[in-house]
Amino acid sequence: MGKKDAGATKLPVDQYRKQIGKQDYKKTKSVLKATRLKAEAKKNSSGFRDAFLVVAAILFFVLCVYAFFYLNLSTEINLDVDMD
Fold it and tell me: What sign does the CA torsion over 25, 27, 32, 38 have?
């Protein structure tokens, strides 16, 4: 009998927690589906983004090395022409 009597009276805190928990279930299926698709897209797109950043970094490095040598060699050629 003690269990039945204890379950009949609920504390306000327990009722409040139950009410907050029910709010999560009030989301529509379209909202839940959109959230799931967004999470999957984020997970799948990270591989492409990482690969693109690596390729872009390599190209930038090669471009910097090319510009460095181009500027150094072109100034030496200009000095030789001016001295003649």
Answer: negative
